[in-house]
Amino acid sequence: MKKVRFGVIGLGVIGQQHLEKIADLKTTEVTAVCDIDQNVSKATASKYGCASFTKYPELLKERICDAILIATPHYQHTPIGIDALKAGYHVLIEKPLSVHKADCERLLSVPRDKNQIFAIMLNLRTDLKFKKAKRLIADGELGNITRVNWIVTDWFRTDAYYGLCNWRATWEGEGGGVLLNQCPHQIDMLIWLCGMPSCVRGFCGLGKQHKIEVEDEVTAYFEYPNGATGVFIASTGEAPGTNRLEICGDLGKILIENNKIIFTKNEISASDYIRTSKELFSRPQNTTEEEILENNPLMHRDIIENFSNAILFGEKLIAPAEEGIYSVELANAILYSSLIGRTVDIPIDSRLFEKQLLGLIEASRKNGLNVKNNTHLIKGKTACI
């Protein structure tokens, strides 16, 4: 069987995890790795018996790969992705697609061959609990969605975590905090399951719990085109923390918590019952189904395998790159709303948010908080690779 030859750019923690999955699949193999740290690149290449690079243009030039997996710091996703696509490679990018919507637009606007596969690592789409919720909603079991609430405050992190890399948790190096680093998966799930809100009001605590300059605590209020409302709460400073998703509809409710999905189905819709019941305090009869579905330990592997199968056999992508812009835009909208102190409509003006982010970077530089010897610039220069 023909194998997809992978080049992995960025050999940090997540890059190393992806390499293990690629090496384990029957349809993929590692033929090149790239990292600015020569020792890391050489040691990794020795482990997988492949070529080693410290500058990604040299890897692209060698033509020893079919596909490029990008697992670098966030700002580099755009320029490396653009170069890889222009060079004709299939591309898989670790989340987020880019730091901000304008960079997503630049990346997605690159002309490519119709057979070029471009995907993003939104692996929560392969989790069995969310797949079941997706089916219930798509089949109309929930009826018209009326409310969604997600509290995801179990992303606890210490100052030592944020101090691990000099680019992390800075506007110039990472471009954001909990919204951009920890929660792209949850934000993607909100959109995947419930659609994109029409407006958002965000409240973000910048360095509220940690010695960082980006957001580590978020509360956001959403309004949807159909009149539904939503609340999203996230934090990296709360212990023990909570991870609880509720999606309510006219016909019932989905609850996901502690690897359990509970679906409560009304015998009659709430709206019909409100109009027709003669009782003062009664409510619709319902039935409840409860199922324990453990987290899928192969989520990343499933995305890589699907990406490879799309290349080899034309399999439909689970997470096309074009869908990666939505979670970035919603994260941008939450932060932007908080910064300007008012509700913002979606879609947002990508240029206005980029300008706001550039202002945060400039203020950080003036206050001496920016990344030392930073090369992860907002316009995408990547001299460090």
Question: How are the SSEs placed, and which strands pair?
Answer:
Blueprint: E1 4-9, H1 13-24, E2 28-34, H2 38-48, E3 51-53, H3 56-62, E4 67-70, H4 77-86, E5 90-94, H5 101-108, E6 118-121, H6 128-138, E7 145-152, H7 159-162, H8 184-194, E8 199-206, E9 215-223, E10 229-235, E11 243-249, E12 252-257, E13 260-266, H9 270-276, E14 286-292, H10 299-313, H11 324-340, E15 344-345, H12 350-366
Parallel strand pairs: 1-2, 1-4, 2-3, 4-5, 5-6, 7-10
Antiparallel strand pairs: 7-11, 8-9, 8-15, 9-10, 11-12, 12-13, 13-14
Helix pairs in contact: 4-5, 6-8, 8-11
Explain the overall architecture.
This protein is α/β, with parallel strands linked by helices and 385 residues long. β11 (243-249) and β12 form a beta hairpin. The chain has a domain at 4-123 and 298-318: Rossmann fold. The longest helix has 17 residues, at 324-340. The strands form two sheets. A nine-stranded mixed sheet has the order 14-13-12-11-7-10-9-8-15. It is built from twelve helices and 15 strands. It has helices at residues 13-24, 38-48, 56-62, 77-86, 101-108, 128-138, 159-162, 184-194, 270-276, 299-313, 324-340, 350-366, and strands at residues 4-9, 28-34, 51-53, 67-70, 90-94, 118-121, 145-152, 199-206, 215-223, 229-235, 243-249, 252-257, 260-266, 286-292, 344-345. The model is unreliable at 372-385 (pLDDT under 50). α8 packs across α11. It is globular and about 75 Å long. The chain is 34% helix and 23% strand.
